[in-house]
Write a structure and sequence with these properties.
The protein is mainly α and 164 residues long. It has helices at residues 9-22, 26-32, 35-40, 46-53, 57-60, 68-80, 88-109, 115-118, 136-141, 144-163. Helices cover 63% and strands 0% of the residues. It has one domain (9-163). The longest helix has 22 residues, at 88-109.
Amino acid sequence: MRLPDDFDPVDRGERARNFFLEGFNCCQSVLLAFADVLEENGLSDAGTLKILGSGFGGGFARMREVCGSFSACTMMAGFIRPAVSPGIEERKANYALVQEMAEDFRERCGGSIVCRELLGLQGHGPEGPQPSVRTPEFYRKRPCGEIIRNAAVIAAEKMKDAAR
């Protein structure tokens, strides 16, 4: 894995948060914060990441299940510790990384990886497919920007550790 010389987890977190503020969903925002790194390593480009992450917003298409930004962390774990063969050892290493990321995410983001719990929507079921309109009020009342920033920082920290 090749990382830019100036690779900084805090910067990656801010990039992710800014993509969210531009209107991308949680998963897309985190993935896009790493588009240059993934492309440099021959894996993807920004357009592909937008496509791959498009259904993960709102906890899987507004069903408020696993947070989209944590879903992006899981995807990034495949880059950091890929499991590309059918053997058990690669999957074990990948799963261990995802579990580490989940623990970090819970510690930094309010104790859960579930969208509805992070947003305080317990007892609410899936919402319709219509995305929320992104207004200043939307951004003020949602913790998503900070959660997305934290998710990208976690992924970047794990990338940096793996590149050492």
